[in-house]
Design goal:
Blueprint (H helix, E strand, L loop, with lengths): L2 H20 L6 H8 L2 H5 L1 H29 L2 H10 L3 H151 L1
Helix pairs in contact: 1-6, 2-6, 4-6, 5-6
């Protein structure tokens, strides 16, 4: 195996190892996200896309070269010509065909696993972000639920307080209404007594007025009689 195909095979084994490590179930995506967020990755991020595209181009070139080699040594005409010229040429051609097929598989799987590795890293990062967002949303939902329960409890307490306050207010209003009714009855009774006393006083005043008029008339009558008696008395004295 030449140096270039040894490097490609090593690259393929490294890809398989990384994919197996990424697929380990006991390493959560959040751990990989922390690893991917190291400062060293941020420094080489600007060269990552160029390196990724360069490796893809290199693997495609090697893959096409391997395809050309496979088509070259798999041709029946070449095999027949080699077999006619030299007795061991057939085995040599088959060996080169095997190597070219091996190189085809190595370059093809290296290219495939390189794309899979890029996609796997992207999916792990997205999954870690989604899990983080899910945790944040779950925490927010729990906090919202707890706040809603707290508000419901406070609402119930307020309803109970308002209900108790309304009952107390109703009792106060009822007591005040009862007191007002009692005061009204007392005022009616006092008003009736005052009306009776006023009527009695008016009647007494009428009676006293009538008595005063009678006395005045009697006084006038007596005064007139007294005057008449005095006149008679004077006349009698003169006649004597």
């Amino acid at each position: 195996m030449t140096l270039q195909w040894t490097a490609v095979a090593t690259f393929l084994y490294a890809e398989i190892g990384l994919i197996l490590v990424f697929c380990l179930p006991f390493i959560p995506p959040q751990r990989w996200q922390k690893i991917f967020s190291f400062n060293v990755w941020g420094k080489i991020a600007s060269f990552w896309n160029k390196a990724f595209l360069s490796i893809i181009v290199l693997l495609i070139v090697l893959f096409l070269d391997a395809v050309r080699e496979v088509r070259k040594y798999s041709s029946t005409t070449v095999i027949e010509k080699s077999s006619a010229s030299r007795p061991g040429a057939h085995e040599h051609t088959q060996m080169k065909l095997f190597r070219s097929q091996r190189n085809l598989y190595i370059s093809g799987f290296s290219l495939f696993f390189w794309l899979v590795l890029r996609r796997l890293v992207t999916l792990i990062t997205q999954l870690a972000k989604e899990l983080s967002n899910k945790g944040i949303l779950k925490t927010q939902a729990e906090n919202t639920d707890e706040a809603a329960r707290k508000f419901m409890k406070e609402n119930e307490k307020l309803k109970q307080l308002l209900k108790g306050h309304n009952k107390e207010k109703e009792h106060i209003l009822e007591a005040e209404n009862k007191k007002l009714v009692e005061d009204q009855e007392k005022l009616k009774t006092e008003l009736k007594k005052t009306s009776d006393a006023l009527s009695k006083a008016q009647n007494d005043m009428k009676t006293m007025k009538m008595q005063s008029e009678s006395l005045s008339k009697e006084y006038d009558r007596l005064l007139k009689e007294h005057s008449e008696l005095q006149d008679r008395s004077r006349k009698d004295k003169k006649s004597l």
